[in-house]
Amino acid sequence: MRGTEFAEISGFAAIAEQRSFAKAATQLGIGRSTLSQSLRALEERLGVRLLNRTTRSVSLTEAGARLLARVRPSLVELNAAVAELDPYRQSPSGLLKIAVQPPVATFLIGSILARFLREYPGVQLDVAVIKMPADIIGEGFDAGIRFGEQIEHDMMTMRVMSEAPFLVVASPDYLERHPPPKTPRDLRHHDCIRNRLPNGAIFGWDFEKNGKVLHTRVEGRLIVNDIELSLRAVRDGLGLAYLLYDYISADIKAGRLVPLLEDWSPRLSGFFLYHSSRRQVTGPLRAFITFLKAEAARRGVSPATPPSPGVYPSHRLAGKSRR
After folding, report:
1. How far is CA 44 from CA 37, 49, 50, 52, 71, in A?
2. 318 falls in which pLDDT band (50, 70, 90)?
3. What domains appear along the chain, each with residue ranges and CATH number?
């Protein structure tokens, strides 16, 4: 196969998997017009249409689906073979695509980006902030970072952030007008600011004390799907909120928010980097793993194995991947 033919096949596969010319062009590091010309040349050479495209969507034709099924395993093997050469390079290079949940982007990734990119100048980092990452492999990511309870058991994992406690909080103004709850059952007397997950479910308010797990049904006039809006609402005294400690620690220290029911506060296992156990680890991903290990050790994050999916309280996270 000539070089141009290989580039055409690779371009076709990238478009088919991304369902987007723009995303495929970014993945391959080429211009969108160049990619479009490459696909057109491939279709003309083969004499068949491989993709149906409109201004809004890209889909495989029957011929395109058959071709993709045949060439995809070979492309994976070729990429793996090239990746095996990474240890022989002085410095890893190439694209690293990771999917992270918003807390990770806010409290981890944002603070280390500059140091990582300075240490590995040959790596191009593509970070997607996704509230509920689904199948990272199928969506073209090399790795992801999410709650341990949401990760399937066949993934390779490494903890990057410590246990994550959730707290009920209120503003001093709200507590001047309402008596603080003494137990989770008292929440039925309060206006609770609830969060809607990307799949439409309402995030559950779970509590734990002395090994006893309690899920409390709460009500309130405000439902939001954005953490920043939830924070604004609780600061403004609209009700109680149930949030990850990292989001509210500064407000608590400054006295803008008051923690409640602290002895009932549940803890999730924390955030873990995860990637496929069946794929070759690329040089950029290996470098990222090494870097995050050093970061975790510097911050005193202890290594751990995430709990199996379905273990409390992941059933309330309503959105772990299903592959």
Report:
1. 10, 8, 10, 14, 18
2. very low
3. 3-83 (1.10.10.10), 92-157+269-312 (3.40.190.10), 164-268 (3.40.190.290)
